[in-house]
């Protein structure tokens, strides 16, 4: 049975997808959509954001994606790591990652 969070996440995804399609159809002409092929996101971004800022937007999205990864250089301490470092040294061994199970 799906919980409420999963349903809300699916609803947000549908709203974002429909919103992107509506903005693309409103802003871009038919010829621009045909010429873009599969790269409609880039063409829409060039149309909405002036030239020097389009690269900043792409870099911001890339950094936000990398920053959410637990082992990345941008986010060296994820929440579980911070919790383990705040505990006393006796329980630090419980925070270590378990060994990998290798198939025989």
Percent helix among the residues? 55-70%
Unreliable stretches: none
Portion in beta strands:
under 5%
**Strand tally, please?**
0
Oligomer: single chain
- Coarse structural class: mainly alpha
Mean pLDDT metric: 75
Order of helices and strands: HHHHH
Topology of helices and strands:
Layout: H1 4-27, H2 30-36, H3 40-48, H4 51-67, H5 79-86
Polypeptide structure, described:
- The chain has one domain (4-93).
- Helix content is 62%, strand content 0%.
- The chain is built from five helices and no strands.
Give a short overview.
The chain has 104 residues and is mostly helical. Helices cover 62% and strands 0% of the residues.
Keywords summarizing the entry:
104 residues, mainly alpha, 5 helices
